[in-house]
Amino acid sequence: xxxxxxxxxxxxxxxxxKSQSEDTVVREFPxxxxxNNQELVTLLCSPRDxxxxxxxxxxxxxxxxxxxxxxxxxxxxxxxxVHVTTKKGFSGELLLKRLITSxxxxxxxxxxxxxxxELKVESNISLPAPKVMAMVKEFxxxxxxxxxxxxxxxxxxxxxxxxxxxxxxxxxxxxIDKIFGECILKDIPTRDxxxxxxxxxxxxxxxKIAKRGVPILISKSAPTNLGVKLAHDLGVTLIxxxxxxxxxIYANEWRVATDG
Amino acid sequence: xxxxxxxxxxxxxxxxxKSQSEDTVVREFPxxxxxNNQELVTLLCSPRDxxxxxxxxxxxxxxxxxxxxxxxxxxxxxxxxVHVTTKKGFSGELLLKRLITSxxxxxxxxxxxxxxxELKVESNISLPAPKVMAMVKEFxxxxxxxxxxxxxxxxxxxxxxxxxxxxxxxxxxxxIDKIFGECILKDIPTRDxxxxxxxxxxxxxxxKIAKRGVPILISKSAPTNLGVKLAHDLGVTLIxxxxxxxxxIYANEWRVATDG
Lengths: 260, 260
What we know:
- The first copy, chain A, is an alpha/beta fold.
- Chain A is 31% helix and 33% strand.
- Chain A has a domain at 127-177 and 191-257: Cytidine Deaminase, domain 2 (3-Layer(aba) Sandwich), CATH 3.40.140.
- Chain A has eight helices and 14 strands.
- In chain A, helix 8 (225-234) links the parallel strand 11 (216-219) and strand 12 (237-243).
- The radius of gyration of chain A is 19 Å and the shape is globular.
């Protein structure tokens, strides 16, 4: 965790007044992603698993789908850059267009009936409700950086039994992108699997999940109405507000089994 | 609040099993900002005060500074667009460059020693610690959409006595941009004033605040190390984790007065 946090002198105020103290805060790192020698974007992120982040970001932008499209990934920690070379090239114009209309907070322009057909998730996986609750509990216990700083989001990949991958990042999109980047680089399947996130569920998160064929999305937090609509349209089971023994299922509830 | 939320049928799971229910979720609205007839960006936001959001976004991107630079602002709710016309034009190339290297999650490339000098905030305003706590309490009580949905961030502008403006949005950047947009359109001063936010404090938030000359930034949440560094560099008092009778002051603590 040393890479991701930093101790700083602060002034603490309590009922007794001011006192000198220390606080652990999360580190914020500017990472530039360079695709085929073209500078693409600078993300602010937690400085860990930068290769996963770069690959996951490119996948979320629809620029790569699988490991065999990638020629080389080089991380340069010193200058804060990841260089990715793909076997196939992309036109500069396409990249520019994607980054302007899509990217963080800029997503829905690519969503159309065609997208819906292409991304529709088919999977018969199901999960008992108590398992959802147990997984979320384990998920929260694993977020060490959050416990130390309160400054990160977390994301995990799970199958119907266990959490397989876990990531934390200052960005809620980055945390999920790191999971998918790791999956692509290590050739770990995402179909018939589950994504858990600490963050709110917007339309962009749904598109990201559906692009990797993930049928179940679990969050501790709230969804938006577009997030719920996309979950219906794309066949994704969307579970929100998992807290203690309770949860809300916003779409495709048939994948969650209860005794009741 | 009707515009910003929607009621949806959901399946609720409790200890007793599944039951049909309803939940109120926050609406997510794609808004395209068109500057001088050039489509600039599509933001996902809460569908309220779209003119404020557009103007605040342009200000945060460094494209406008004050009301007298603006010729016209037209909101088209139906197509989800705000058209802004400025007195002075911008080259397409400049806009493109700004949006790729800056924008949400893509901020630090414009930060340099020159930026630091230009943005340095000078203000002798100070605030008693109990006032900070009282303001944060009032701030939380005002967030109606959050209380109904759990799906938004809030932001406020205050002077040393009262909260003056309050906004909620699904995006933590949007909520602050709406505040600044309203200030610009109504010619409300931001110097010697305070911004309160529900969100985490990254370097981008600090740059946004300093661009409007705001000397005190208060958050319920955590800052990042770059956020703290910029607060020191730019002369901003950064207060985080305000909870009950406690808070952490990360930079320029001299603007917070205690008896102790």
